[in-house]
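Run log, item B.
One chain of 99 residues. Sequence copied directly from the ordering sheet:
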Amino acid sequence: MDALNWINGWFQSNCDGDWEHGFGITIETLDNPGWCVKIYLYDTELDDQNFEEIEIHNGEDDWMTCRIENYFFVGMGDPDKLQRILDVFVGWAKKFQDE
């Protein structure tokens, strides 16, 4: 299953009539240019899980950061990193499924 389909299922499983009205998931463009993915973790199975921050800086055209910040998974990267950011989130989140 690809990352987008997996995230779609994860999103649906967390929709409880309240959570999705808060912050949910946003995917935005950045002006440097790049991507920003924010996934709200509060009141999910991920809200208190450890995440090892990822920082890649190989120049203006090859960069990515992923971290947890104020109950959000935040992934940012250059224009080629959207899929990688989603893959990072899914790889981390799958570790805690059905625990």
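Observations after the first pass:
- The first helix runs from residue 3 to 14.
- The chain has a mean pLDDT of 93.
Flagged for discussion on Thursday.
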